[in-house]
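Box 3.1 A note on notation
Throughout this textbook, protein chains are presented in two layers. The first layer is the amino acid sequence; the second is a token string describing backbone geometry. Keep the layers aligned when reading.
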Amino acid sequence: MKKLVGLLLIVTLSWSCSTNDDNNDPINCTEVLVAGLSVTVKDDTTDAILTDGVLAIATDGSYTETLENLEGNQVFLGAWERAGNYILTVSKQGYQTFASNAIRVTEDECHVITAEVEIRLRPN
């Protein structure tokens, strides 16, 4: 039995360590979901991070998405696995609404490349 296990181990290691010099090797992508946008919202006067009551909306042409603030997280996330050029509109009661210039979210062979953005809201 020990010889069989040893033989299987050697065969498995040999197979997993074999190389192929072809340039056609598949790319091994992870199955995690990646946010295209990660947005931190701060008070422009106090530098405090704002999450409660903040509405962050990303728009790319006719596509619109409300970004999510996951519990215990200090950022708003969205554009999951979606490349594009986004305009962010961020609002909160007691603050001036902010609209960004276009924010480009790119992608590689596997996932989007997260654009990390800081938005500073000015109190009214």
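The chain has one domain: 35-121. Confidence is low (pLDDT under 50) at residues 1-21.
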